[in-house]
Structures are given as C-alpha cells and as structure tokens.
Amino acid sequence: MGNSIVEFIKKHAFFILGGVCLVAVGVVYMVSRGPGVAVIRGDDRAAADLYEAADVYTPATAEAPEPMPEVASAPEPSYIIVHIAGAVNSPGVVEIRAGARVNDALELAGGANEYADLTRVNLAAPLRDAMQIIVPAAGEEIEEVFVFADDFNIGGADAAQYGLININIASAAELQTLPSIGRVRAQSIIDFRETHGDFTSVDGLINVPGIGSAILAGIRDLVTVG
Question: Has residue 2 got a pLDDT over 90?
Fold first, then answer.
C-alpha cells in the first residue's frame, strides 16, 4: 500500500507540484484582494476625484454672468417759442413743445374769442420756432394768418430771429396782431410816427394817444425799433 502511494507520487509528481503552485498563487491573490484593502483604495480614489474636481473649478474659470443691458433714458423734450395774436382770449408769446400744432398754441392762448373766424386758420398746421399765428376776427382783413420770423421786414438780427414787429415800418395789420392793439391804436401809432418821425425806442410808444403803461408793458417784448 505504501509502495503504491510512493509510486503514484513519483509517477504524477509533475501534476501534483503544479497543483500546489496554483493553490499557493490563489491564496496569495485572495489575500491581496482582501475587503479591507479594497475599501481603503476605494475611499482614496473618491477623495482624489473630489480634490481634482475642486482643483479644476475656480471662480476665475467660471462663466461670468452677462451684464444687464443699459436702459436708455428718455430724451428731454424740446420747446419752441411762438406768438399767437388776434381774436384770442389771451394773446401773447407762448412756449410749446416742438412738433405741436396751431390748435395746441390756440389752447395755450385761452382759445379763440367770440369774434374769431377759425375757418380761415389751419388748426392742424405744424408750428415753427418764432412763428406768429394771427387769428382773424370775422370780416377782418389781414394779409397772412401765419407769419414767420424770416418774413418780417424789420431791422436787426435779433428782431428777425424772434419775430419782433418793427413799430417804425409795421403796417396797421401787423400792429393789430399785438395784444390790446386794435385798429384805432394801430392807426394812432402810424399817425404818430408820420408826424414825429421814427421811434427811437420802444418806450416812445407811451407818447401815442391811447397807449398807457399797461398796454406798453404787454407789447414791449414783442416789438422793436429796428
């Protein structure tokens, strides 16, 4: 029996030795893959991944938010100066927004009075700076309803710019566009200058019959002597 075992070992020694080696390698491999080592390596890898992610992401590399668009401020409205006269309740110089119409200026002048003939006025006409609007009375003869600064036959650059009436050369119709100046006072102004010569200053109107200090104050800024 013993000899048989020895003979068997000798005969199959190569296979037995190979099997032992395989078992030894398996044992070594299983020990190296133990659960404690695997858990530690796994934690280390997770920690390394978090570190790498934190190291890569910085505020400098983050995409900056788009700036808020600037809100454009509304432009300041521009204004013009016009003179409205004739058959209106409050004739005079008014300041009005650019782009306004004749009807807008008429409202600022208190509207037309009971003598006005608005059928002869284009209320939809656009206004221009230094424009004069003359609202005629019914049956009144006037040369023009709309008079512009460059249409006045008056002297001096300032007079042409602001549409002032030159009392030394103005016609009766032009003088009647002034506040409180009707046909009688307009003719008085013409008669006075023909008798005494040209006015040397606007204040000389105080010497015209029918023109007192109140009327002069109301037209002083609307006339010139050229």
Answer: no
- Relative to beta strand 92-97, strand 131-135 is unpaired
Global pTM value: 0.40
> Tokens standing for 214?
């109140």
Backbone angles phi, psi at 84, to 5 degrees: -115, 130
In angstroms, rounded to a whole number, what is the distance separating the alpha carbons of residues 197 and 194?
Answer: 6
* Backbone dihedral angles phi then psi of residue 42, each to the nearest 5 degrees: -60, -45
Dist CA 176 CA 173 (whole Å): 5
- Smallest CA-to-CA distance from 210 within 174, 171, 183, 173 is with 183
pLDDT tens per residue across span 9-30: 566 655 666 666 666 656 555 6
Q: Tell me whether residue 23 is exposed, middle or buried, using C-beta atoms within 10 angstroms of its C-beta: 0 to 12, 13 to 18, 19 or more.
A: exposed
